[in-house]
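Summary for the steering committee. One of the milestones for this cycle was to obtain a three-dimensional model of the protein with coenzyme A bound, which we needed before selecting residues for the alanine scan. The sequence and ligand used are listed below.
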Amino acid sequence: MLRALGVEDADAVYAYARDPAVTEFVTWEPHTSIEQTVLYLMTVETAYRDAGLLEWGVTLAGSGELIGTCGFARLELDHARGEIGYVVGRAHAGQGYATEAAAAVLRYGFAEIGLHRIEAQCVVDNAASARVLEKIGMRCEGVLASRVRIRGRSRDVKMFARLARAGEGHG
Ligand SMILES: CC(C)(COP(=O)(O)OP(=O)(O)OC[C@H]1O[C@@H](n2cnc3c(N)ncnc32)[C@H](O)[C@@H]1OP(=O)(O)O)[C@@H](O)C(=O)NCCC(=O)NCCS
């Protein structure tokens, strides 16, 4: 299930956001204090009001436990384009949760926001993320050289995308 995040989720988010294995392929550093997690959640709450960023909590349907986040890291409505991102803590990895969450965000982006193109980028070595994107029907359009800098090292990224209507996008 996807639901809104709030500062009351700080303990659950900090539990995985402090894990260096989780941040290996992302541009943010592992959280070093719960206060840092609270600040992050406050920016998410502000973004809900300003609609500049839409990131939701990923929770288990039965227990309601928060295990990660998924949503739009960027929305460029002028171009009917959005970029998705997701994190699932290691304790719950490999069970299809990121795939299920990302598929729901894609559906929401196309059907509710009216996006035409949804993108995602992952570092070339992030095989699990690339697999998630393939499983939700996104196509790798190519590799962007030295696109991001992660802990002082420039990394190549794969650009994935899916269009609202298959077959369009060559005009
Ligand atoms: C990437 C991430 C979101 C995947 O979450 P998840 O819930 O484990 O993903 P799923 O279970 O839905 O799918 C993972 C797929 O990757 C595969 N996979 C996992 N590790 C892999 C590896 N090292 N090499 C190749 N495939 C791998 C799994 O087998 C699975 O594919 P399958 O269903 O065909 O077997 C999670 O590992 C994560 O949060 N990583 C850290 C943050 C991150 O990198 N976010 C993405 C930034 S682009």
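Key point for the committee: The pocket of coenzyme A is lined by residues 22, 25-26, 85-88, 93-99, 122, 126-129, 131-132 (CB under 6 Å).
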